[in-house]
Amino acid sequence: MIGFKKVPTKLVLIVFVFAIISVLLLYLDQSSNQPPPEEEISYSKSVDAELDEVRTQQTYMVKEGEILSIIFENYKVPLNTQYKIYSLENAGLATNIVPGNKIIFRYLGNELEEIEIKKDQVNSIVINLKNNIKIAKVKNNVDLVTSYASGTIIRSFYEDAAASGMPDSVIMDFAYIFGWDVDFVFDIREGDKFSVIYETPYSNGDKVMNGDILMAEFTNQNKTYIANRYIKNGLKKGYFDKEGSNMQKAFLRAPLEFSYISSHFNPNRMHPVLHTIRAHNGVDYAAPRGSPVRATGTGYVEFVGVKNGCGKEIVLKHTNDYSTRYCHLEKFAKDIKRGIKVSQGETIGFVGSTGLATGPHLHYEFKIGNKRTDPIKVRLPSAEPIPSNLKRDFDVLFNKNKLMLDEMKKFSNYGVTLTEDE
What we know:
Blueprint: H1 9-32, H2 46-52, E1 55-61, H3 68-74, H4 79-86, H5 92-95, E2 102-108, E3 111-118, E4 123-128, E5 134-139, E6 143-152, H6 157-163, H7 168-178, E7 193-203, E8 206-207, E9 212-220, E10 223-230, E11 238-240, E12 260-263, E13 283-286, E14 292-294, E15 299-306, E16 312-317, E17 322-332, E18 341-342, E19 347-351, E20 361-368, E21 371-373, H8 391-413
Antiparallel strand pairs: 1-2, 2-3, 3-4, 4-5, 6-7, 7-8, 7-9, 9-10, 10-11, 12-13, 13-20, 14-19, 15-16, 15-18, 16-17, 17-19, 17-20, 20-21
């Protein structure tokens, strides 16, 4: 019997694995010397299709005397599309355009998809032309941004308020709110302090309208006044102090903004033109020629015209036997005539130097019955306070705003600048 020598199994496996690795290395070496395959570039028609469907828009500003059909024609809105728009029940929403409206035509590729008529920064009329044509009112979201400003008077209220970052409209509102108690011409002193919280509406990042004061505080000659806005249950907007008394009085303290008193009420004054002792029964406000003169109270025009040394003048008759007189006007405001009603703060004329006047200024008189009274010192009657049934609600709002004002003052005192986003 022939015998065979047994080969160890472990040795066989090692030889087998080594052989396989050698074959693989030989194959990879040969393949690496082969030239790379040609790159295939394919073109798709979908690229051109995407380019045709780019979204674009064109904007047009409506001018005086223009109508929608002519504008549509200029922007090549198809006639059948126009007919469908005009046949809708609410077509008047679209056709009622006025100068200043913006019309935006939106396209997908060459196809007109939508027309938007912007009535203002918030309200629009949108005409959807896809599938069934529809017209709808659209109102953009409005965000209220709360801001704070404060300062100390060094030069003048207007200059220092502007330097604090307070917008012009808020400065004017601030002076109007406190204008019944403080004469911003005569009463302002260096060192007086002011602070205000106001909110400004924004839509899509753009300011929609001027800021509206929530709460304002003014310290004048060591006396502090505070006013809180309140709108509730159909009441028109008003500003009230902590006790709920109306900041508004029946009369403004002064008929001009940001001028100065050149002559006070004085029954024994020497007249600057006649050079005789002649009672000065009012207050003279020096101001640039053409400065607007406002009615200090709501009333009816009792006289408008030229009279004696007063030159061009207006006399207003108010309730409770009050009357006011405005003299040396350059001209009267448009539509001012005898018998019409004017509102408090309304411009009735413009500063001039007509009559016996040495230069442009306003002579202002305040009468109770037949008695001429110093308008600087007279105690002015107030408007209606917060109704008793709303006082608790007002107190909650007042305390909330006062807490916010005090907190913002702290940040300001620490040198932190508060932006509109804070």
